[in-house]
Design a protein that fits this description.
By secondary structure, the protein is an alpha/beta fold. Helix content is 28%, strand content 18%.
């Protein structure tokens, strides 16, 4: 009942960064990070195996951890493990039309989502954890329930394709509200001097910090 919302990154007021790559025959879909079951590995594998390779191209900017179908892995472009400073360059090299977050377990923040927002392409994500809040009001964003079927994900990607095709070179971008720097503004702020109370006789006072 006294929870404090403390976003990890401050954001100045402005507009959402939007940068839509030109469409070709294939819609490029990127997944970022370590792909495991709770981050949607099964959804990704099923979608890759069911998708028409002439219409969809899947990029894993990262690596898989745990069982993953070899048939799906062969149809994906995989960078392998990366160091954090390399991430933006890897996203730029893939130049995805949409970055996909098919999580089945809630993320409390997601720094890879920050990288996707900064890139400015379309984002598709599960409606769970921090994603609905952090993406509220963002254009070219699709949120889907947990779970979502393979057919529904592929239909959603067709919606993304159609939206990009009709957006034009300069799509209208709504304002993005500022996110206050909680740590600079509130974290170290004094809550006032503590009230002094008389110590109990013959008892030591112990403070745990």
């Amino acid at each position: 009942d006294r929870a404090v919302l403390a976003p990890h990154e401050a954001v100045p007021a402005g507009t959402w960064p939007i940068q839509l790559p030109r469409l070709g025959k294939k819609l490029r879909i990127a997944i970022i990070g370590t792909l495991v079951d709770h981050k949607g590995a099964r959804s990704v594998a099923a979608a890759v195996e069911a998708a028409d390779p002439a219409r969809f191209e899947f990029h894993l900017i990262g690596h898989t951890d745990g069982p993953f179908p070899k048939t799906a892995l062969k149809r994906m472009k995989v960078t392998g493990k990366y160091k954090e400073p390399e991430l933006n360059a890897l996203i730029a090299a893939a130049d995805p039309h949409v970055i996909w977050f098919p999580m089945s377990w809630p993320e409390t923040y997601s720094y890879t989502l920050s990288a996707a927002i900064a890139r400015g392409c379309a984002i598709a994500a599960s409606r769970i954890g921090s994603f609905p809040e952090r993406l509220a009001g963002r254009p070219f964003t699709w949120l889907s329930g947990v779970p979502t079927s393979t057919r529904a994900w592929l239909a959603l990607f067709e919606e993304v394709r159609a939206a990009i095709a009709t957006a034009g070179p300069r799509p209208e971008v709504p304002p993005r509200p500022a996110v206050e720097d909680f740590y600079a503004a509130h974290y170290l702020r004094s809550s006032g001097k503590p009230k002094r109370s008389s110590p109990a006789p013959r008892r030591p006072r112990i403070m745990v910090i």
